[in-house]
UniProtKB/TrEMBL annotation, chains A, B, C, D:
Catalyzes the irreversible transfer of a propylamine group from the amino donor S-adenosylmethioninamine (decarboxy-AdoMet) to putrescine (1,4-diaminobutane) to yield spermidine. The active site is at D161 (proton acceptor). S-methyl-5'-thioadenosine binds at Q34, D109, D141, A142, P170. The gene is speE. Pathway: Amine and polyamine biosynthesis; spermidine biosynthesis; spermidine from putrescine: step 1/1. One of its GO terms (molecular function) is spermidine synthase activity. PROSITE patterns: PABS_1, PABS_2. This is Polyamine aminopropyltransferase.
Length: 310, 310, 310, 310
């Protein structure tokens, strides 16, 4: 009976509001950093909601996490050391560990409660990844860790799987040009930095383009791409910032060959043809992302509202 | 003040409901065929809503209409006669008339009230297309017109821009294998049939795959593709069914060359790179669309609910 | 942060929908009889929801339960034996036990899960009433119990605290004229029957007036009254059907005197002045309730939709 | 088809939101003072909405307007001169003119657009009252008019039919103790002042109690009462402030006699029994309204949020 559902209201800017039916709340808690809810949706299965934003759903999280991980790891050619900033659910870790070359995957998430919840209530996401011998979970501030615990030229791939710095939240220091310079220095010479980079559609794109433009101050190669994630009701943006290699030059056949050689286990979303779809952008989006001039610095934050254009 | 908006509720299946703020209703009427509303949204500008479904918005209708028209007309090589089934707003007509080769564009829409509303209240959509000397508007039943008023081997491109046949509505006879056979016969030997083909995402795809499978009973080449339309909050599916040429074989450069040679006026969404993005589908969607076995016939309608999987 | 609430949608007929924010679900279960949710609202505190209908909230349940119990028990003069039909939360029982004359309060609720939930999660409602020596809880069908386990002329007050028989649900046999005749027979000569009797407002009244008219076939004195309950967003109807005494004849002073003599513990809503307010009805409501002609019988159920007029 | 409705969202405080289906917008305009919408609801018929708040609906406006006008005019015994502050729709005027003793009814509403809209689109409300020879409509600031254009001891009844001074809006100077003193002076010795006085229910009452306490600084007799108005989904408060007579002393018979002698035309809500219901308040509400200590002055406004307690 539909009438028994509760509804989660996902509030976009500009008078848009998306209601998702919820069968039940599986777990919820206010941690020192965020408000976390694990709920069950009749459409999307189990869903993770943080501070009122859908983070991922069981039905389609593979789209988001495969898009985030594989293009970057293939761009890095033979990545050994991978560092995740954030990444609570453990799915990003899961996808990284499918790459045979990886010897060390370090996940730095400030919120121990969040990763404990993932371990306990989101086993379908991490699928035991936290127990893999190559994996290390560190609950501390990601910027401090990168600055103090990593040496230059030591990391193959950084993956930023953080919530966005809306309304000047404290996470914005993980999006500044100063931090990106440190990331650049810690990367090896063919190193790659990939970020979840907010929603990207013609009515909402500003957060994406500002992150992109900030990265362009530091990295020679910066590629935006997006995938449609049903639980978000929108296309979602990602950015690869690379020191040397360019994922856009890969052919369908290149990608399919690399997947075959370098990845174990099945992928559901990503393959050669998907790669071509991801890295060829529609004309309107290409135009939008090229005109941005703002840069986030440690002292200059652009106060974007949640899911809203400037 | 946000609190003064009214809200349009776009009801998806499975307990999903999307609310779009509405500043005002510009016009609305119940015609003999449908309930039509032209409203103004703070996010999407003017919007056309038919029977509770968003049809198009001023902000992003170019995505839908360029995706529907240009790949098909380029696939046909040098189309002269183009027939639109439905197409109320006049935007499909507008895009067709950008092709220099077109000498005759016939639009057959059963609802005279709908096309009158488009002429009067949606000038930003049609931009005077109805007045072009090459255009003919006929308000009658599309199937009867195709069967009785067109001869075999006479049409270069058919464009189906109709609402979907949900819940066994009368439009389903425009989606049957028998009708598709008539379309096939009326087409010239390199003729192309393109359809708007319902929402296509991993949680909602059944209407698309049934239309696709029905077309495959008749046409040798059938290509699904999709574009994300923000006002729909979902990726939207299209299908090209072709007698001879295959749009998937075009390179980026092919498409950019054809656009330059054959199209006048600007395109905002479609170009060579967009074409590559459209016709390379993610792995999960490719898998979904290949497994369908249902076929719509004049006597066998599959009773799908609105925006719902079976 | 408001945006983290889930929302419960309370659907009235006629395109009315009331959204109540929910902080968390405290407990929920589908029993063999109904879907029960105990949630926490920022406005109303803990709330009980059954099959999508708000049953009571911590902030205002005293209005509903005092209105249901005290006018009836004062009308019966010196009630000893009181029988509750339904009454899940235990609040009706709690109020009955405030009357010094009561020696036996029997609560007959078919849903053991519901009363177990009340005992465990709704202690603020029952306040230990289930443990009172005068109280007996029986989990069985109320009609069968009244027919088989009670003798004629043995009960002072019956209290019907059941959900309404919408859409022909099985509870309608607790609303038929045949069952009301049995109730009449089981009552002592100054016995009283009081019912929660659905929402009563000028836009929604049909369920109330049909119950009332059915009672009028059996009882000589039938009095409708209503109280506004904020968590319901509407005035809620009750009916006293009496064999001999008429609560409308009581003065303010009568009621205040009886409360002082016969009731222990505090009342928050009901007193002499409240009684006068309850039993004097506005002209429009008086007119509405006098014109009903339908009667519910065991064989003739009137299929009302939820919270809807005919 | 329900799915074609737009919805008006009536936002209460504390995470409560009431959605009312809207068939169509009949008229809407932003005046210099407010945003006015006349819409058609399937449940409530034509509705007037100002700044996102339901003002009145065709189905139940008689409850509000009869409650506002008749108790006050009967309290004044033989009122000749009546002044309305605000009163846009013209229904308050309509009810006043039913009193045979009235020789002059002056309506002072600052918003000429609002009264023009009422004249044109809300004829079912005013029913021609604006054309009555005894009626005068003045579009100017009510406070300035009362201060400058009326002499002391000249008015029988003042009726305040204004929107509430939420969030420090400019109307708050029509709610200050200084203005109430002027009202007192302008009234004759048995004069009466009646106000619509915001929603009054146990979860939302602060605006009412502050207005009430402000009046108590000036008038010897102050009586709160309320009526349930379905389109508001809440009980609505009114206050009579009187120099000499007390409506609470009237019996049912007194009121019915006065109605018969002094009023022409039918009343649908108000009569003797209704009067008794209105002026006997439940115990919880009596307690709430007695404890207020705040007073609105010209220099001290209490910044209440819309429909929200402090």
């Amino acid at each position: 009976m539909e009438k028994n559902y509760l509804y989660f209201h996902d509030r976009f800017g500009g008078a848009e509001e998306h209601l998702h039916g919820v069968r039940r709340i599986i777990y919820e808690v206010r941690t020192p950093y965020q408000f976390i809810q694990v709920v069950e949706s009749p459409t999307f299965g189990k869903m993770l909601i943080i501070d009122g934003d859908v983070q991922s759903s069981l039905v389609d999280e593979y789209i988001y996490h495969e898009s985030l991980v594989h293009p970057a790891l293939l761009t890095a050619h033979s990545p050994k050391v991978v560092v995740i900033l954030g990444g609570g659910e453990g799915s990003t870790l899961r996808e990284i560990l499918k790459h045979k070359s990886v010897t060390k995957a370090i996940m730095v998430d400030i919120d121990k409660d969040a990763t404990d919840i993932a371990k306990e209530y989101m086993k379908e996401w991490h699928q035991g990844a936290f127990d893999d011998q190559r994996a290390t979970l560190i609950n501390s501030d990601a910027r401090a860790f990168v600055e103090s615990n990593l040496s230059n030229n030591s990391v193959d791939v950084f993956i930023s799987d953080l919530t966005e710095p809306y309304e000047g939240g404290p996470s914005y220091k993980l999006y500044s040009v100063e931090f990106y310079k440190t990331i650049f220095d810690r990367l090896k010479e063919d190193g790659v930095f990939v970020l979840q980079a907010s929603l990207l559609r013609v009515t909402n794109y500003k957060m994406h383009t500002i992150i992109r433009n900030t990265l362009k101050q530091v990295f020679p190669i910066v590629r935006s791409y997006f995938a449609y994630v049903p639980a978000f009701d929108t296309t979602w943006g990602f950015i690869i910032a690379s020191k040397k290699n360019d994922p856009k030059t890969f052919t369908k056949e290149d990608v399919d060959y690399m997947i075959k050689e370098r990845i174990t286990g099945d992928l559901r979303f990503y393959d050669g043809e998907t790669h071509i779809a991801l890295f060829n952008l529609p004309k309107d989006i290409r135009k939008l992302i090229e005109t941005e001039t703002e840069v986030i610095t440690d002292l200059h934050y652009i106060p974007l509202e949640r899911k809203e254009n400037l």
